[in-house]
Amino acid sequence: MRRTGLAGADMTEVGAALTRQAEELAARGRPVDSTIDDLLSG
């Protein structure tokens, strides 16, 4: 886990950062298996 520096970010920036991280994880063979909505609703 790493720090993202998103403390003052709006939701658009947060979504973009999460998308980039999901792409990075997929490239490493560890794809994300849920959506941002799932993350925020739990």
Commentary on this structure:
There is one protein chain. The chain is globular. By secondary structure, the protein is mainly alpha-helical. The longest helix is centred in the middle third of the chain and has 17 residues, at 11-27. The chain has one domain (12-41). It has two helices and no strands. The chain has helices at residues 11-27, 36-41.
Shape summary? globular
What is the gyration radius calculated from CA atoms? Answer: 11 Å
- Measured as a percent range, the helix fraction is 40-55%
Oligomer: single chain
Strand content: under 5%
Tally of individual helices? 2
**What's the number of structural domains?**
1
Class by helix and strand content? mainly alpha
Which stretches of 5+ consecutive residues score pLDDT under 50? none
Order of helices and strands: HH
Q: How far is the N terminus from the C terminus?
A: 20 Å
SSE blueprint and pairings:
Layout: H1 11-27, H2 36-41
Summarize the structure.
With 42 residues, the chain is mostly helical. It is 55% helix and 0% strand. The radius of gyration is 11 Å and the shape is globular.
Kindly list the characteristics that best describe this protein.
42 residues, 0% strand, mainly alpha, single chain
